[in-house]
Amino acid sequence: MPDVNPAPAAREYDALIIGAGFSGLYQLLCLRDRLGLNVQVLEAGDGVGGTWYWNRYPGARCDSESHAYNYTFSKELFEEWEWTERYPDHAEIRRYLNHVADRFDLKKDIRFSTRVVGARYDEAANRWSVTTEAGETLTAQFLITAVGCLSTANVPKFPGLEEFGGDWYHTGQWPHEGVDFTGKRVGLIGTGSTGIQATPVIAETAAHLTVFQRTANYSVPAHNAPLTPEFKAWVKENHAEIRRIMHSNTNGQAFFIEDRSAWDVTPEQRQTLYEAAWAKGGLQFRAVFRDMLLDKAANDTAAEFLKNKIRSIVKDPVTAALLADIDHPYAAKRPPIDTDYFATFNRENVTLVDVRRAPIEAITPTGLRTRDAEYPLDIIVFATGYDAMTGPLLKLNIAGRNGLPLAKAWEAGPRSYLGLQVAGFPNLFTITGPGSPSVLCNMPVAIEQHVEWITDCIAHMRKRELARIEAQTDAVEKWVEQVNDAANATLLPQAVSSWYLGANVPGKPRIFMPYAGGMARYREICANVAARNYDGFALS
Ligand code: N01
Predict the structure, then answer these.
(1) CB under 8 Å, gap of 24 or more: what pairs does 350-354 form?
(2) What backbone phi and psi angles, to 5 degrees, belong to 375?
(3) How many helices (H) and strands (E) does the chain have?
(4) What is the pLDDT of residue 9?
(5) Phi/psi at 262 (5° precision)
(6) In this structure, what are the phi and psi dihedrals at residue 111, rounded to the nearest 5 degrees?
(7) How far apart are CA 514 and CA 114, in angstroms?
(8) Which stretch of DSSP H or E encloses residue 39?
(9) 455 C-beta neighbours (distance < 10 Å), count
(10) 59: left (phi over 0), alpha (psi -120 to 50) or beta
């Protein structure tokens, strides 16, 4: 049953929030219930969930462990919700977010099936005018984007797609009724986290699955399993400690990165530690050594271990070599975790095709053509990722002071102060915007910090009868420098095809977008800015 659209009582609000995922729901709760503001959320989907509303592809599951993938602001909420598996799947995350929305009576202030197509700042009135696809205009003093970082699908512009006689889907816009692959010849393009999750599941029912790989990728087993009653009880008893760890470490996860260098141990000990981390599974593999993302030689030890695992799992040596031919340091691209990804290539109905050597040239009426061969297909799955971080914001057609389009302000790449505000766009806050840790962190933790900072900031303004806040240009310049320095201190920019750099979208400026200095450090910086009377922002 779709959620019912509440009839709007008024078109003028204190704050408008775009998006009803993790960010939008919590921002609504904070502004409405803590500050007493008149708030409306505008959501394109017909239910809550944001990214998880759209991502329903086979195998879609969160890579953060369930006990770390929730809000931490309410002890009661944390204790009453019980996850069923080590990693929650997309449907369970939607159930959780619906539970949150119902528990805090949020849906009455969300307009579903309402897509925002424009937003314009009116300087004289100090208000934002937001236009919807249906042609309605709503206004508010504050505009808050809660549109996520990975919500604008990237479908490569292969010639011929319109003439394809079969069905095609992007993983981020998956049909709610699912797709039946039984007996079909399926082509899947992309070997990022999504393609790696979907491949084994699609292979189970497809007549044949052809995976088109442009960049080979590392992956570590997820070892997903139902949670035991003991673990569930442990989580409830340790809410405060789990929260403390998530809030005090660099990545917002419920585990720490080990405080030892890869060179503190012998090669044999390293192997044993990697084996143990492989057996444990999950994103924690990154946490074995503190210098894994800082020292290329240290990273090489992990990379070699993982490439050897691929070679030992995949039986056909040519396929194994292609899968292990990885060109970037481990975890310099977002590291995937999987359930039987590499073993899937041992199935008779699965083929790997190298589209780096022989790129895809066209989609044909009956399949896909690379430089070398033609592949007849019934279904094409685009696991080709997103126009990350900037895409969801630019799609909103935001215009700031003097009608300046955000697209123009960010022509050479995104520039923000703390990932929270853009100079020239007063009273616009961007939750997990470019320049914030966001995608390098467990998202709910990054989101809660942003939402609470924005809420405190608006409370501060109300108390002092201030009407406008705007990032100052020099603060933006300095922050952009800090974001670049933080990235350059790591191996992250070495993955030249990474979406962190915008490299996956042709023509997109190559700028390392998220802040790589760590969530704990970032939290401290934001708190200090607020304590110094919102240093770097102009308030009036
Ligand atoms: O997208 P990606 P994704 N021809 O951009 C290939 C999050 N996530 O949807 O690397 C051929 O990583 C592209 O090749 P290349 C997570 O943060 C989270 O998989 O550009 N291939 C690449 O292999 C993740 O990082 C969860 O050379 C083309 C793939 O498509 C982010 O979402 C689960 C191509 C795209 O990989 C994005 O992951 C899943 C072309 N023209 C995802 N264009 C959670 O756990 C692109 N590719 C929460």
Answers:
(1) 350/199, 350/203, 350/208, 350/209, 350/210, 350/211, 351/208, 351/209, 351/210, 351/211, 352/210, 352/211, 352/213, 352/319, 352/322, 352/323, 353/210, 353/211, 353/212, 353/213, 354/213, 354/322
(2) -120, 110
(3) 16, 20
(4) 42
(5) -60, -20
(6) -95, 110
(7) 29
(8) strand 39-42
(9) 20
(10) left
Is the minimum distance from the CB of 215 to ligand 1 under 6 angstroms?
yes
d(CA 366, CA 349): 19
Residue 504 Cα: closest atom of ligand 1: 20
Tokens for 272? 């044993």
Residue 317 scores a pLDDT above 50? yes
Q: CB-based contacts of 308: which residues, under 8 Å, 6+ apart?
A: none
Structure confidence at residue 4 (pLDDT): 55
- 492 Cα: distance to centroid of ligand 1 (angstroms): 16
Q: In what order do the strands lie in the sheet with 367-370?
A: 360-364, 367-370, 374-376
What's the rounded Cα separation, in Å, for the pair 113 and 133? 10
Q: Report residue 1's pLDDT band, with 50, 70 and 90 as the boundaries.
A: very low
The two tokens of residue 144 are 């808050």
Rounded to 5 degrees, what angle do the CA atoms 428, 68, 514 make?
40
Beta bridge partners of 209: 186, 350
Q: How far is the CA of 191 from the centre of ligand 1 (A)?
A: 6
Ligand 1 close to Cβ of residue 360 (< 6 A): yes
Q: How far is CA 389 from CA 439, 476, 508, in A?
A: 9, 17, 12
Cβ burial, residue 135 (10 Å; 0-12/13-18/19+): exposed
Per-residue CA distances from 19 to 27, 432, 442 (Å): 10, 13, 19
**Residue 486: closest CA among 463, 518, 439:** 518
pLDDT digits (tens, 9 = 90+) for 401-417: 999 999 999 999 999 99
Quote the tokens at residue 161: 């797609």
Sheet holding 185-189, edge to edge: 167-170, 379-382, 185-189, 208-213, 350-354
Q: Verify whether ligand 1 is closer than 6 Å to residue 514 (CB atom).
A: no
Ligand 1 center from residue 265 Cα (angstroms)? 34
Q: Which ligand 1 atom is the nearest neighbour of the CA of 150? A: 32
